[in-house]
């Protein structure tokens, strides 16, 4: 066993405090106390609580350290993507070598570390709607492409397109990009220009693949024709546009933005499933949902009543209401109107 400082949302029932938990000068929980579901609920209700020091096993410690390494890698790639985006001349004159470097770096990490998907689901991209968002979308797009059986070459171009898909947002006023409230109709029309802005900028990159250009241009097109900028339908939309559209939607749902809180992990999947009936591509949504279902089974999660649970089984028809194990009892959330999963832990 060893001591670790954890965020409150990383705590689990059964962990033992290695130090007193103090808030506003008051001892909330003493040292060497086992954290129960009731105590976890109490801690989760305190918004500004600092990290908590607990004893954890070597195995748990290793996963946390590995998740932190993954997060650091994602941050480093994000910084490099920002530097590239902020210098349009470098982007255009790079003859794709600079972009390829970050594409290959991300691909190597995704292939070698299964915790990337967990990190993205746990953390989202926060308020960074351009740079970290683009890296997350690239990682999720990679997973969809991999689950779809794409070749290595096709996966490379898919990740490449995903990294670039929101570059056009850097050409839009920061007042619009960083606005905390809802955009006005006029501001939204300006925001909707970003796929075309991206396309117009990156088409100047020497030897760029048409599949990359179509991916960035079409990632907001929708199968029913309601998307933008071209109002394309169904088979008119390139596969990369369809996949990036799903990944883009998921990361937005799974991230805390200035104007909205992230959806629960399974609630986000339900929205993707509902959108697949008309707007998002049905085939790729099914591939994505099946892959995420397999990932979520066996994961620990937090319920809205403060209890922790393990996800046992997920039914596609009730994707946000799985069978869980909590307090040594099996509970079918599809038959429980007052319980739902808040987040993975």
Automatic annotation (TrEMBL):
| Record-linked PROSITE patterns | HD_GYP
Q: What is the lineage of its organism?
A: Bacteria, Bacillati, Bacillota, Clostridia, Eubacteriales
Q: Which Pfam families match?
A: HD_5
- What range(s) does the HD-GYP domain occupy? 108-304
Q: Tell me what this protein is called.
A: HD-GYP domain-containing protein
**Which SUPFAM superfamilies does this UniProt record tie to the protein?**
HD-domain/PDEase-like (SSF109604)
